[in-house]
Amino acid sequence: MSFPVITIDGPSGAGKGTLCLKLAQALNYRLLDSGALYRIVGLKAFEAGLLTDKELTATDEKNIADLTAQLDIQFIPRDSGEVDIVVDGTSVAGEIRNETVGGYASKVAALPKVRAALLALQKNMANEAGLIADGRDMGTVVFPDADAKVYLTASAEARADRRVAQLKQAGQSADYEAILNSIKQRDERDENRSVAPSKPAEDALVLDSSQLDADEVYVKIKKFCQTKGICFSE
Ligand SMILES: Nc1ncnc2c1ncn2[C@@H]1O[C@H](COP(=O)(O)OP(=O)(O)OP(=O)(O)O)[C@@H](O)[C@H]1O
Ligand SMILES: Nc1ccn([C@@H]2O[C@H](COP(=O)(O)O)[C@@H](O)[C@H]2O)c(=O)n1
């Protein structure tokens, strides 16, 4: 039996996570936060001394892919609908959500052997229930036969504004220029890598959310999903 899959790809800060959580709650589907997988590998590779400022070699790639294959990664749904991420028995959800780890993630994500090591885990998540898959290559590589594909984007400036607001709300300091630079660097790396670059699938709906709030985005994507035969109960 196959279950419905909705893919939401796009750059950092476009609002994918916010949209995916709403869709998963409304449809009672599982949520795959594939960015968390690359963040975990990036963090673990950094901690193991495998990520430095130097260009990564073929040996580095093999070592990071071996480390990836040994990780026990679990997505545990919580009552709130959010998903806890547990690695080798320890929750890492709080530790991986920062721009430094986002940068590590983007480096290891450019390594084909690392992407290959994470592929089966991602594909298997569609075997148990309907799935909302959040990432960069969900519609192009991991779930090419998905029922509905979306590429959610926004200008780098709008995304930097959102990050600044998010950090301030969490009581943290935020340097707009530094955040904007980091977003642009990550976009550059993610969109131009040779393997699974971040881009819309040919059959994806592309939505620019720069001028839309999160509710407006949800309403548009819900309507799009309905045209693809996905049934919402509300
Ligand atoms: N349409 C929107 N308009 C304004 N702010 C938004 C919108 N969608 C999400 N946000 C806010 O922007 C911030 C980033 O959103 P979110 O984490 O969903 O983005 P993302 O695409 O998942 O980023 P990442 O790929 O880095 O995880 C959050 O604070 C969120 O509340
Ligand atoms: N399918 C994916 C998802 C993510 N990445 C890389 O991980 C970085 C972090 O992703 P977030 O969504 O958590 O911000 C991202 O910049 C990508 O480099 C990926 O390659 N493929």
Task: Indicate the topology.
Layout: E1 5-9, H1 16-27, E2 30-33, H2 34-47, H3 58-70, E3 73-77, E4 83-87, E5 90-91, H4 93-96, H5 99-108, H6 112-124, E6 131-135, H7 138-142, E7 148-153, H8 156-169, H9 176-192, E8 205-208, H10 214-227
Parallel strand pairs: 1-6, 1-7, 2-6, 7-8
Antiparallel strand pairs: 3-4, 4-5
The chain binds adenosine-5'-triphosphate and the ligand Nc1ccn([C@@H]2O[C@H](COP(=O)(O)O)[C@@H](O)[C@H]2O)c(=O)n1.
The ligand Nc1ccn([C@@H]2O[C@H](COP(=O)(O)O)[C@@H](O)[C@H]2O)c(=O)n1 binds at residues 12, 34-35, 38-39, 102, 105-106, 109, 135-138, 186, 190.
GO molecular function, one term: ATP binding
Organism: Psychrobacter pasteurii
Catalytic activity: dCMP + ATP = dCDP + ADP; CMP + ATP = CDP + ADP
Specify the overall morphology: globular
Quote the beta fraction: 15-25%
- Secondary-structure content class: alpha/beta
pLDDT averaged residue by residue: 95
CATH-derived architecture: 3-Layer(aba) Sandwich
CATH class: Alpha Beta
Bound molecules: adenosine-5'-triphosphate, ligand L45E5XJ5
Distance between the termini: 25 Å
Low-confidence segments, given as residue ranges, are none
CATH topology: Rossmann fold
Task: Please give the radius of gyration in angstroms.
Answer: 17 Å
In order across it, which strands form the biggest sheet?
2-6-1-7-8
